Amino acid sequence: MRDLLSYLFKRFIWMILTLLAVYTVSFVLMRAVPGNPFSGERNVPPAIERQLKARYNLDAPPIQQYFDYLGGIVTDFDLGWCMGLEDYSVNQVLAEGFPVSATLAIFALVFAIILGVTAGVISAVYRRSPADVALMAAAVLGIAIPNFVLASLAILLFVFTIQIFPAGGWGTLQQIALPAFCLGLPVAAYIARLSRAGMLETLSKDHVRTAFAKGLPKRTVILRHVLPGAMLPVVSYLGPAVARVLTGSLVLEKIFALPGLGSHFINAATQRDYTLAMGMVLTYTVLLFVMNTLVDISYAIIDPRVKLQ
Amino acid sequence: MPESLSQPDAAPSRHGEPLLQVNDLQVSFKTDDSRVRAVRGVSFDIYPGETVGLVGESGSGKSVTNLALMGLVPSPPGRVDGGSVMYDGKDLLKLSPLQMQSIRGRRIAMIFQDPMTALNPLMTVGQQLTEMTRLHLGLSRRQANEKAAEMLELVGISGASRRLRDYPHQFSGGMRQRVMIAMALSCEPDLLIADEPTTALDVTIQAQILDLLRELQERRGTSIILITHDLGVVAETCHRVLVMYAGKVVEKSDAGPLFASPQHPYTQGLLQSLPRFDQVQTTLRAIPGQPPDLGNLPEGCSFRSRCPLAIDRCAREEPPLASVGDRREAACWVAEENANG
Ligand SMILES: Nc1ncnc2c1ncn2[C@@H]1O[C@H](COP(=O)(O)OP(=O)(O)OP(=O)(O)O)[C@@H](O)[C@H]1O
Ligand code: SF4
Ligand SMILES: [Mg+2]
């Protein structure tokens, strides 16, 4: 317990430092590219541009902007007004979009884990069988096909040809299913390969032979003595998997017209919505940190030899 | 009659029925370009309450022979090609997986060579000890825990009930091997196969473990097959000895006569390479030359290229295991000739 608390404390300090670094780099990068949110095609009268700049504190010297904005975030979690969406604060946009993106990501991940692990275990247990060959061929395909191609194909197939899913929208399980499937499939494919390799490696371990020598039924040996060890690489991969699902969902949400952060993110990038972009970058940083911490803790729970540090 | 602690008891009488009869056992492994014949017609009997030593250099087929008895030859690439293992009126090689499960661990238990890797690192020692007794003896969780603690005490692990909650990495190598022994003995098997149970351990602990096995055997009348590289251990522990070479048993004898007058040139070589009988740390690799390629065996006697006594016949015909004295057999033309005048 002491270990866990000190680990969590250390992770927290690291997260704060990382956030500060991410904030700084993002701030500099955004200012480094020429132009600002109000330049470009829209020709804003100079008076209004001045007014806008004042509202967003863009007329202050950059150093002061840096600290003013940072101060707002630290004291009030206030990420300011969106520069691209009039009359929306960044916090509002995040509060509306984040639950959608998070729900989609969770569905995709759970789907990927269940499908990937099942496929990997079957492949390994029935090694070299037709099932193994078919599953692993599918996994290679699944890894190779980019999300958006998969999404287009899926829409073509399930929405237009055999109409069993709606093309877009949000709220019902049916509406979540297709994007979650497209988002999760490549991750499932990767998890399938990791699980298969993990299973085969663990199956060849001496202690598994011991388990068989004890007279345990094959099912018990597989589930109790092989599966946990085989899942360690999968657990390690969950950190990157979360990142992958989150970035993938940015594109997929646009394709499926989902009201998540994805469409905002793309708008924020194209319209130089500094504040919204910053809000999203920081949110995702926190999210990844939390996920990786959970992954580390799960790993340590499965493998008692591992000490959290 | 007082007996020195370091000598095995007199061999138990072999008038009764053998516990286990291995007949012409054959096991092979498929490799890229050939079939490695790891066990080539091995036969032996194990009687109740005796300890049989199985010696032979690395790769001679000791482990594979015993894995075959347990139905644990890894397949693929391994395959049992023939023979029978009679136990309790049944051929173990013909049992269904389910029937075999009720023999493994319950009637025949095995201790593996490397205690560092033979236990599951992700489960507590208690979980690993109790899953067997719950399965085979139908104990409740509480009974199984009590039994597990009792077994750990028996093999000399103190604070046993506390240590049940520990993981294998919290035990030293010697302690892990004790845990393995406790596990193997927890269902009171008829036969214990100990595959180099002390190789990875230092000499003091090695002696402790062997004493432990001997003591447990006396108490329960368990038969033991002891696989080892160490002739010192054999002299100290075994009633009978099987010497294996290139997948065959080349000499079979009671322990005393074997050490006094080895019949097979390979056994003679082994004993010569053992400078003194009381020297404990002696491996069997000291005979010059290499064992033959089991995937591509030469004609005639497989020991011929290393044999100082080889005659013409050895190149043409492979010698069968034949009687060379009272309860002694050797697979060697010269030994057979000498014995039969
Ligand atoms: N899993 C396997 N795959 C291929 N060949 C194997 C396998 N296991 C054993 N063999 C072969 O079977 C032969 C006998 O091996 P075995 O393990 O029985 O030897 P051993 O007498 O126990 O040796 P050691 O003293 O080193 O333990 C070896 O030549 C080895 O190449
Ligand atoms: S049969 Fe011939 S080669 Fe083989 S051990 Fe005897 S003497 Fe040596
Ligand atoms: Mg071996």
UniProtKB/TrEMBL annotation, chain A:
UniProt KW keywords: Cell membrane, Membrane, Transmembrane, Transmembrane helix, Transport
Compartments where located: Cell membrane
Listed GO CC annotations: plasma membrane
Pfam name, any one: BPD_transp_1
PROSITE patterns attached to this UniProt entry: ABC_TM1 (PS50928)
Domain ABC transmembrane type-1: residue ranges: 98-299
Residue ranges of the TM segments: 12-33, 104-126, 133-160, 172-192, 281-302
Keyword Cell membrane annotated: yes
Protein's GO biological process: transmembrane transport
SUPFAM superfamilies attached to this UniProt entry: MetI-like
Membrane topology, record value: Multi-pass membrane protein
Membrane in keyword set: yes
PANTHER family linked to this entry: INNER MEMBRANE ABC TRANSPORTER (PTHR30465), OLIGOPEPTIDE TRANSPORT SYSTEM PERMEASE PROTEIN OPPB (PTHR30465:SF74)
Entry similarity comment: Belongs to the binding-protein-dependent transport system permease family.
Name assigned to this protein: ABC transporter permease
Organism of this sequence: Roseiconus nitratireducens
UniProtKB/TrEMBL annotation, chain B:
Matching Pfam families: ABC_tran, oligo_HPY
GO cellular component: plasma membrane
GO molecular function: ATP binding; ATP hydrolysis activity
PROSITE patterns: ABC_TRANSPORTER_1, ABC_TRANSPORTER_2
UniProt membrane topology term: Peripheral membrane protein
Record key words, sorted: ATP-binding, Cell membrane, Membrane, Nucleotide-binding, Transport
Subcellular location: Cell inner membrane
InterPro entries attached to this UniProt entry: AAA+_ATPase (IPR003593), ABC_Ni/Peptide_Import (IPR050388), ABC_transporter-like_ATP-bd (IPR003439), ABC_transporter-like_CS (IPR017871), Oligopep_ABC_C (IPR013563), P-loop_NTPase (IPR027417)
SMART domains in the cross-refs: AAA
Residues covered by the ABC transporter domain: 20-271
Gene Ontology annotations of biological process type: peptide transport
Listed Gene3D superfamilies: P-loop containing nucleotide triphosphate hydrolases
Family that this chain belongs to: Belongs to the ABC transporter superfamily.
Xref: NCBIfam families: oligo_HPY
Name the UniProt record assigns to this protein: ABC transporter ATP-binding protein
Lineage: Bacteria, Pseudomonadati, Planctomycetota, Planctomycetia, Pirellulales
